[in-house]
Design brief:
By secondary structure, this protein is an alpha/beta fold.
Length: 731
C-alpha cells in the first residue's frame, strides 16, 4: 500500500517520528549514518508495518506515496469534500477526494477533527468498495432460482403492496425490519418511522442487540441516562485508563493511539485487562492477563477488594448511593482467591491494580461491546459501573465509562429509535411527553404493542410467524452470531427485502434487492463514541442505477401513506429535531461536530445494580479450547473485503494459536486445521503467535468464508457472553 522513493527523501524524519511517537509501532527508522543514511526498518529487520499510511500523510516531498493512488489522477484536479470516516465509531474527520464520479483517495487535515488528522488503515485505504465493479446497479427481483433487473418504480411498488398484503392478512406483528449502524441517522430514523408509523409495528432492531445494546441497557440501569458520558479530552487527560478485554488498537485504532500517546507524554496509568497480547498491552503500564470471559469477575474482584480494604475514601460517600448494599453483597464473593480461580490472575496483581485505580483519579474504564466479540456483555458493564461509582469516578451528571462502537453509527441507531423499546431521542415508550411530541411530528403515535427484538424476530421467522422482513444495510448471515441458525430462519421468511451495496450472502436469499449508496454518495449525519454528530457530505453521484438509502426509504414511506416524502437529508433532519428536540442543537443545519446532550428523566440519580455473573461451565472433554472472535486492524465489517488494497494486507481468515497449542497439534504456520464447536465446524489455516495464551484461539469474523460466526452462540438471557469451546485438529 505504501511506495518508497529514496531519491526524493530529504531525511526530515517525520515519517519515523509519527510511526514511533503517534502510532507506537516504530516500523521504520533512520538507519546507517552520514551519506548512507536512509529510511528503512531498524537493524535490517523485515518490515513490520500496520499500513496505516500516516507516513504518507506527513511526508513533505512525496518520497512515500499511496500505491492505490499512484498514476490514477492528478492531485490538483481532485475535488475535496470534508466528511466523516464510515468505519468505526471514533468519528474521524476525513477528506473524500474525487473526480468524474469516482473516489480516488482519502486524506485528512493535520490537527483537525477529533482525530487530529490521524487515520488508520481502514480510514485511509478502506474506500475502494465505493468504486467496486461488484456494486449493485439495479433493483433485482427473484425469479425462481435467479434474479432479474426491474425498474425502481416497479420494485418499490411491489415492496409496498406486499407489505400491505401481509399486514392485512397476518397483522402488523408479522412484519419486521433490521436497521444498520452503517446507515446515517436520517436513514435509521426513516427505518423506525416506516415500521412504527407506516406499518404499525415495533418490530425493528439492529446488530446492536448482540453487543453495543448491553452498554446502553447497563447505562440506563445504573445512570438512567447517557448524559455526562466522557469525551475524548477526558480520556486524554485521565490519570488512569483501564481497557477491559478489548483490542482498541485494532477495533478503534485512532482512539487506541490516543491512549498510547497519553501514556508516553502525560504518564497516564494505562492498564489492560486482556487475555490476548496487542500493541496496547505492549505499551501498558500494567497488563493483567486474564482468562477470556472473566472480565466481569475481575472488575467485581477489584470492587470487593476496595470495599474490604477501605483504601478509597470515595467509597464512604458511595454508600449513600441507592443500591449500594445489594451491589456490595453481590461483589463480596469475588475475593482475590476466587478471581484467581476464575481468571488466572495472581491476587497480588489484582490488589495492586485495585490500589492504583482507587488512588489515581480521574479514572476511566474503556471497553468495546461489539457484536463480533464473544467474551463480554451486560454484567461487564454493570461491574464496571459499580467500580466507577464506588471510586467516585462516576456520579450525578458524569459517567466514567466509554464504550466505543464497532461501526460509525452504532450509537445513532439507538438515538433514532431503531429498536423495539426506544423512541427517537432515546425516549422510553412510556414517556407521555415524548410520545406526544412524536405524534405531532409523525401525525400518528407509535404502536403500544411490544415489538420483537433481533433475537425475537429470528425466532419468529423460524416458527413462521414473521412473514416479511426488510433488511437495510446489514448482512446478518455473516455478521450475526449463530449465523447458521440465522440463515435457516431467513430462508423461511415469505417476503425478504434486502437493501445493500452488494449482492451479499443475505441478499442472495431475498425476493427483492434494492441497491443503496455508499457514504461518499449521500448526505447525512452519524453519531460517534463521544456522542458527537459528524456529517457525511456527498462527494460523487450514486452509481448509475443505485439510489441514496434515505431516498429509497422516503419513497417507501410515501407509498405507505406517510406524507409526500422528503426532498433532502436535511429535511429529514429537520423532522428529527421536531420529533426529538434534544437533538436539535447538534443536528441543526448550522451545527457541525457538536455533541448532543441526551435527556435525563426528572429526578434521575445513579444507582448501583447488583451483579449476576454466571459461573463458567466445565469444559467438555472433546471441546478443550476457548475461542475468541473479533476484528482485524485492516478490516471493517464485510465491506472492506470489496477493496483490493486491504485484502492484499489481510486476504483471509486464519486461526491465531499459541506456540504451545500449535506444537501439541503438530501444526505450523499455514497448516490447515478444522475448528469445531457445538454448532458448526470450519477449516482455516493456522497463524502461530506469542500473543495468544495457551488454551485459547482467535478467529477474525470479516470474511464470510469460513463462516466464523456460525461457530458461536447468540447472547444468553443473562446478557453476558462467554467464549465458545472448540476442538481444533489437523484437516
Amino acid at each position: 500500500l505504501v511506495e518508497r522513493n529514496l531519491n526524493r527523501c530529504i531525511l526530515c524524519g517525520k515519517c519515523v517520528r509519527i510511526c514511533g511517537e503517534v502510532q507506537g509501532v516504530g516500523a521504520i527508522g533512520l538507519v546507517w549514518r552520514g551519506f548512507e543514511t536512509e529510511i528503512a526498518p531498524p537493524f535490517g529487520k523485515p518490515l513490520d508495518c500496520e499500513f496505516c499510511g500516516q507516513c504518507i500523510a506527513v511526508c513533505p516531498v512525496g518520497a512515500l506515496t499511496s500505491k492505490l493512488f499512484k498514476y490514477k489522477a492528478r492531485a490538483w484536479l481532485l475535488e475535496r469534500h470534508p466528511s466523516t470516516c464510515p468505519h468505526c465509531s471514533t468519528g474521524c474527520s476525513i477528506n473524500v477526494e474525487s473526480a468524474k464520479s469516482k473516489v480516488f483517495r482519502i486524506t485528512s487535515d493535520i490537527g483537525f477533527g477529533v482525530n487530529e488528522g490521524n487515520l488508520c488503515p481502514k480510514g485511509r485505504f478502506g474506500y475502494e468498495y465505493v468504486n467496486s465493479p461488484k456494486r449493485l446497479a439495479s433493483p433485482m427481483e427473484r425469479t425462481g432460482s435467479s434474479f432479474a433487473s426491474v425498474a425502481w418504480g416497479a420494485a418499490l411498488t411491489k415492496v409496498s403492496e406486499k407489505f400491505r398484503e401481509i399486514r392485512e392478512k397476518h397483522g402488523p406483528a408479522s412484519i419486521g425490519a433490521v436497521a444498520s449502524p452503517r446507515l446515517t441517522n436520517e436513514e435509521n430514523y426513516l427505518v423506525a418511522k416506516l415500521m412504527k408509523a407506516g406499518l404499525g409495528t415495533n418490530n425493528v432492531d439492529s446488530i446492536a442487540r448482540f453487543g453495543f445494546r448491553s452498554a446502553y441497557d447497563g447505562a440506563m440501569s445504573v445512570f438512567k441516562t447517557l448524559r455526562g458520558s466522557p469525551d475524548y479530552s477526558a480520556l486524554k487527560n485521565a490519570a488512569t485508563v483501564v481497557v477491559v478485554g478489548s483490542n482498541i488498537t485494532e477495533t478503534n485504532p485512532v482512539l487506541g493511539n490516543f491512549l498510547i500517546k497519553a501514556k508516553k507524554t502525560r504518564g497516564t496509568n494505562l492498564v489492560c485487562i486482556a487475555s490476548r497480547g496487542s500493541k496496547l498491552t505492549r505499551h501498558a503500564a500494567r497488563w493483567i492477563r486474564n482468562t477470556p470471559g472473566s472480565e466481569a469477575a475481575v472488575l467485581a474482584g477489584m470492587s470487593a477488594f476496595i470495599l474490604k480494604s477501605g483504601i478509597c475514601p470515595a467509597a464512604q460517600e458511595a454508600r449513600k448511593i441507592p443500591g449500594f448494599d445489594s451491589f456490595a453483597e453481590s461483589a463480596a464473593p469475588f475475593t482475590p482467591q476466587k478471581v484467581k480461580a476464575l481468571a488466572g490472575i495472581d491476587p497480588v496483581e489484582l490488589e495492586a491494580a485495585s490500589r492504583d485505580f482507587a488512588a489515581k483519579s480521574p479514572a476511566i474504564l474503556v471497553f468495546t461491546l461489539h457484536s463480533f466479540e464473544n467474551i463480554k456483555g451486560l454484567q461487564t458493564y454493570l461491574a464496571a459501573a459499580g467500580l466507577s461509582l464506588l471510586t467516585g469516578n462516576s456520579g450525578p451528571g458524569r459517567i466514567g465509562i466509554m464504550v466505543p462502537g464497532e461501526t460509525c453509527n452504532i450509537q445513532g441507531v439507538l438515538d433514532m429509535g431503531a429498536a423495539p423499546d426506544i423512541l427517537p431521542g432515546q425516549a422510553a415508550p412510556g414517556d407521555a411527553k415524548a410520545l406526544e411530541t412524536i405524534r405531532r411530528a409523525w401525525g400518528t403515535a407509535p404502536p403500544e404493542a411490544k415489538g420483537l427484538d433481533m433475537a425475537g424476530m429470528i425466532e419468529a421467522a423460524e416458527q413462521g410467524r414473521l412473514k416479511a422482513l426488510y433488511i437495510v444495510g446489514e448482512n446478518p448471515i455473516v455478521n450475526f452470531p449463530d449465523s447458521g441458525r440465522v440463515r435457516k430462519a431467513l430462508e423461511k421468511v415469505e417476503f425478504l427485502v434486502v437493501q445493500d451495496l452488494f449482492m451479499t450472502e443475505t441478499a442472495k436469499l431475498a425476493h427483492i434487492v434494492l441497491p443503496g449508496a455508499s457514504f461518499a454518495e449521500k448526505d447525512g449525519t452519524v453519531t460517534n463514541a463521544e456522542m458527537r454528530i459528524g456529517r457525511f457530505r456527498k462527494a460523487i453521484e450514486p452509481l448509475e442505477g443505485a439510489c441514496e438509502d434515505w431516498r429509497i426509504l422516503s419513497n417507501l414511506c410515501s407509498l405507505m401513506g406517510l406524507g409526500e416524502g422528503y426532498a433532502s437529508a436535511s429535511e429529514i433532519a429537520e423532522e428529527i429535531c421536531l420529533a426529538a428536540p434534544a437533538l436539535a442543537p447538534a443536528m441543526g443545519p448550522a451545527s457541525s461536530g457538536t455533541r448532543w446532550i441526551p435527556p435525563a428523566p426528572d429526578g434521575a440519580e445513579p444507582s448501583f445494580s447488583p451483579l449476576s455473573i454466571p459461573e463458567p461451565k466445565e469444559p467438555a472433554a472433546d471441546l478443550p479450547l476457548l475461542l475468541i472472535t473479533g476484528a482485524l486492524l485492516n478490516h471493517s465489517g464485510t465491506v472492506t473485503r470489496m477493496g483490493e488494497g486491504l485484502m492484499k494486507v489481510s486476504p483471509s481468515a486464519a486461526l491465531w494459536i499459541s506456540p504451545q497449542d500449535a506444537a501439541a497439534l503438530g501444526a505450523g504456520d499455514g497448516a490447515v486445521v478444522k475448528v469445531k464447536s457445538a454448532r458448526a465446524d470450519v477449516s482455516v489455516p493456522v497463524k502461530v503467535t506469542e500473543s495468544m495464551p495457551k488454551g485459547t484461539v482467535f478467529l477474525p469474523v470479516h470474511f464470510g468464508d469460513p463462516a466464523v460466526t456460525a461457530l458461536v452462540s447468540g447472547p444468553p438471557a443473562s446478557g453476558e457472553k462467554t467464549p465458545e469451546r472448540v476442538q481444533v485438529r489437523k484437516a
